[in-house]
Specification:
Blueprint lengths: L2 E13 L13 E13 L3 E5 L6 H8 L7 E6 L2 E2 L5 H8 L2 E4 L13 H12 L5 H14 L16 H13 L5 E5 L7 H18 L2 E6 L2 H7 L2 E6 L2 E7 H6 L4 H8 L8
Parallel strand pairs: 3-8, 3-9, 6-7, 7-8
Antiparallel strand pairs: 1-2, 1-4, 4-5, 9-10
Helix pairs in contact: 3-4, 3-5, 4-5, 5-6
Length: 267
Amino acid sequence: MEAILSARELRKTYRRGGSVFSQESDGARFTAVDGVSFEVARGETFAIVGESGCGKTTLARMLLRLIEPDSGQIYFTGENLLAARSEGLRALRRQMQMIFQDPFASLNPRMRVGEIVAEPLAIHEPGLTARKRKNTAVLMLARVGLGADALDRYPHEFSGGQRQRIGIARALILQPKLIVADEPVSALDVSVGAQVLLLLQELQREFSLTYIFISHSLPVVAQIATRIAVMRAGRFLEIGAAEVVLHHPRHDYTRDLLAAVPELPCA
């Protein structure tokens, strides 16, 4: 199967605490992502699962170049993402979008929903008329289950699940090829989160999307993943088909994660 994204030996370190005036050496740095390599096939849902602080979100942000790796390579649709500049980077970025963990913090409270959803069009397609942007936003909001009356309202007027749907509409309006979903249901009630997961699966089929799905929850991952990478302390401990990792894990850490789940749903 064709790889849409390939990451090779990605590394990222940070300074551990201290003030900006501290004289601490490199020994005071910690490694958030430590030599991670993997490929994501077009159309699959590749889940990265691990405990908080294991490096999942740092890795996700590097894949979108929201932060720069210290070393390594990233190829997206065959293009060297880390070497891309100006218009080349802009063209690649419109094909890669992110759904954020917190639907409360990820939406600008001062902007109306119509402006939030249409903002990527204003940035990447400045030649579009305001009317065209608005009409496209209406269509995308409808696809995620929200009516046209949402356009002129503010984020605080919506529930958590509705806000996450707004975030999904914003991510999809440019018709990207790859969506990185960083803990997209962890801030939601279980029943609302289940509805959002179903929506993501429907949208994947409809728009031929590829997902990189970040989560700390094996039950959530079991519902949506085709392949799973288990991450701990900045490294991938094992990668495999979802059914194999969930039911026949190779690593002790994966077995411990599974043992902590009372009853794991079938993949």
